Amino acid sequence: MRISCKKYSRRFFCALAIIGGLSPLASASTFTVTTTADSGPGSLRQAILNANANPGADTILFGIGTGAQTIAPLSELPALSDPVILNAQSQTGFNGVPLIRIDGINAGDSEGLRIDASQTTVQGLIITRFARDGIAIISGSGNFVRGCYLGTDGISALGNDTGIFIDSTTSSTIGGSLTNDFNVISGNASDGIYIGASASNISLFGNRVGLNAAGTAAIANLGSGIRTLAANTKIGSTQPAQHNFFSGNGGDGIYVDSTTGVQIIGNYIGVNVAGTAAIANGGSGIVDDLGVGTSIGDTTSGGANVISGNGDNGIVLIGVQGSQILANIIGIAANGSQALPNTNYGIRAISGSFVNIGASSAGTGNLISGNGRSGIILEAVTSNFVIASNNIGSNAAGTATLPNGEDGIVVYGQNISVGNSLAGNVISGNSGSGISIDAPAQNISVLRNMIGLNTAGTASLGNQGYGIRAVGGGGIVIGQPGSGNTISGNKRGVNLEAAVTAAKVQSNVIGLSANQSAAIGNNENGIGIQGANNQIGGTAANTGNVIAANSYYGISLYGPGATGNHIEGNSIGTNAASTGIFPNQFGIVIYGANGNFIGGTAAGAGNVIANNSNNGIYLWFGAQNRFLGNRIYANQRLGIDLDPQGPLPNDTLDVDHGPNEGQNYPVVTLATQLANAVSVQGQLSSLRNANFRIEYFLSATCDITGMGQAEQFLGSSNVLTDVNGIAAISASLPSNPVSGFITTTATSADGNTSEFSPCIAIGPASAGEFNIATPVQAYEDVALFKVAIVRSHGLSGIASVKFNTADGTATAPADYASVIQTLTFAAGESIKIVNIPIVLDNQVEGTEHFGLVLSQPTGGAKLGANSAVDAALYDHDPGYPFYSVTDASVSAPDVGQVQTSITIKLSAPTTHTIVLNYQTADGAAKAGADYVALSGQVTFLAGETSKVVPITVLADAQNQIEKTFYLQIVGGTGNVIAYDSEGQITITASDRIFKNGFE
Fold it and tell me: Which of 743, 761, 779 is the last residue of a domain?
């Protein structure tokens, strides 16, 4: 501003002017516009010319009659080239709504007003229908545009090309904090506001961009609400009167383009001025394209942006560096409790690095909920993002679900932290998974998050998919000591799919409340594993997971890709202190997986697997799965069960095939208390000349079936079988129990672990007792019901027991064949099987029952508590047939190949289509050398019960011994129940020796 010497001491200021080489300062003048004419005295054009000609901070006022007036220039108005205050709010009748309109309908290719000066203010104008910019600020500094309507009269679209164009200027302000300072910048043909790269330090306060004057409906700028290329642009502030509203625009609300230091604070983007309803921008709420150090949101009260209701994403990041997104509301109304979805993602990061979405301290997190797709997606070219302290999928309080339409967070990037050692996120209530990780993701850490729960970790707000689903990627860490996640209340807990290897899952609570005091189970699995070499828990302190109260499996290992996984130090079915009873349905289930380690030989490797409603470990099929050093007890069915369910007798030389190759268990014949030790005697009958690890366990009670439990791991020994497959067991184990039971397992050198042996009471030799092994569940679809009779507690001498069936609601011979047998057990013999034929009829009977009874024990043996039990006979359900796979045998060909086949059967005709996937698996016979590897699927249409799979066997010069391989069912679709998932193909020895002349 120029200063008149008349106002101050002439001596000082005029001397200053002379010293500075300045001309004498002119007086400020006021010029009043009194006519709507294009030119001449009293016209706006003449007032601008007069102000430009008079050096100093002049004022232009308006007094064109009263009320609303329109000036329609016939050509472009002169630029404002000298400081001036152009105040149209001076028009008589002004009451908050601009009355003076400058309309460019007749002005040709021109701008509305051009500011080419400093310290200039344009206030209270309506500027419409100019072919170029409504207002252009192209030089100077400290300019203001306040209370103007640009491109609209506040009700209708009367667009300029751009509402406000700013370049080559600094420290200018658009809008303000007083009642009549806000601009309405709407209806323009391109952007509402465009700020060029030569500008800097531009501030925007209190504007309505893309809306009507009331802020209740869209008057779209067809481009972005604002596009800035200028450094240090400040858009909004924490003061309510300085919040901007960017809604209803045809493009994005805010577009940050290749600049630095932009601050976007306290704005409403995509919603009305109350923040209660969507007024969508056609694109995204905010796009940060190559921005450096952009700040979106602020932790100070009033600093949150509401970014909701937009036609694409809430926020898009492209090539950003060092930006932060803090304390915003994205996809939700301003009140934090009502969904106003952005159509796609809440935050979409296409590329960029070193970005914080939330931070570690309180109040920094964003509310990212209610969006049409996922809350956050980090695409492949993102790195070094930290996501912390956010609520994703719930309301602001974290007490109710406001789901994102897909996942909470999707990660494809590298070096990403979802939560950190100081703060996690609440990721709950989403329609898909809480977190999804997929290739090419690398080095992903998921720490301290509450996934599927409320903020307090006390109640379910479940994600409808997985808590965490890792589909691909590497270097995945889910929890670590002191920074574990709580993953509960979801449809599924954690899933590591086939492409995921070497992931670490440690220190998490999966299925309980955060304090481990209440069951909040995931509806299916706690942890599912299809990949290889993953670490679940660990041997170091506090690395184990708590996996409890999940509706199906605590942990499942599924398919041949699930190999080399280590499951160590976890609590499965109980809390970390082993004081709570929180059953999963099964503790661990293995289906077709090979070569895994459940527990181990190192200190701390053993898991606690207790209280589960079914088996502790159930191995459906698969081999070389080691179960070592675990505490397995108080499960409702067998601690370790190799399919089929229920204990099976050992076989001579252990030649049977099945899960873990049907490894025989040791037989303990005597357990004697010594001073500070327990002496255990017995034997293992298994393969000839083979090494085995024998593990010993102590429990206060025996399983009701008579099979052993493993409350305490006592130790191990190694044995070598002789040519007859026999190895004596003799061990002295440090322990000093006053009573209890001993049980054992055997693990072969190649890693096949047996079931637990029948338990033996510590004390003198005895004939033991007889029990019926439960469960006793028969199915009409399975022709032969096998019942195991177990002799346990003692195995001394010959003993016998009578077995008989007894009619109940199921009767013989209509439903089953009556059986009466006397079973004689040799000394050391522990299990016999009784076969009961079952009748498959066509009657709808529901579940029926009949009795199984033991009586008349001899040889000093007793009847145990489970000597009379109820057998449930489940009716055939045509909607759920059972499938089975037959075996086959073929002689090895002398040359070329020979065909055989396997039949896959259903127990009864189907009522729907069933598809079963199959593949071959090596035994002693190897694919490529002995047979042709095969995989595929069979389809059973309604009414079909049998499908034949051709098998090709190859000639082999070494094929002079019997070899086997297998065909396995590895999945499928349609309602069907697995009964026998594996068929064995035996290649018998070639007879070529006779055909070569020795016959």
Answer: 761
Cα-based distances in Å from 174 to 97, 153, 996:
17, 18, 102
CA distance 367 to 302: 14
- Tokens representing 199 are 């500008």
Contact (Cβ atoms closer than 8 angstroms) between residue 367 and residue 391:
yes
Q: What is the pLDDT of residue 960?
A: 60
Hey, what are 268's tokens? Answer: 């409403």
Of 386-395, 398-407, 546-555, 969-978, which gets the smallest average pLDDT?
A: 969-978
Query: Is residue 8's pLDDT more than 90?
Result: no
Q: Which of 520, 527, 523, 528 is closest to 491 using CA atoms? A: 523
Do 720 and 781 have their domain in common?
A: no
**Chain segment 276-335, per-residue pLDDT in tens:** 999 999 999 999 999 999 999 999 999 999 999 999 999 999 999 999 999 999 999 999
pLDDT of 558-573, one tens digit each?
999 999 999 999 999 9
Shared domain for 775 and 847, answered yes or no, is: yes
Q: Which of 676, 720, 680 is nearest to 696 (CA)?
A: 680
**Residue 837: C-alpha distances to residues 279, 442, 446, 873, 877 (Å):** 71, 56, 53, 12, 19
pLDDT above 70 (res 21): no
Cα gap 69→89, rounded to integer Å:
12
The parent domain of residue 534 ranges over 524-636
- Return the amino acid letter for 932: V
Number of domains in the chain: 4
Q: Are 379 and 355 in contact (CB under 8 A)?
A: no
Question: pTM of the prediction?
Answer: 0.91
335: left (phi over 0), alpha (psi -120 to 50) or beta: alpha
**Are the CB atoms for 46 and 77 separated by under 8 Å?**
no
Distance CA 63, CA 683 (A): 113
If asked whether residues 535 and 617 sit together in one domain, one would say yes
Instruction: Out of 840, 874, 908, pick the residue that ends a domain.
Output: 874
- pLDDT value at position 959? 54
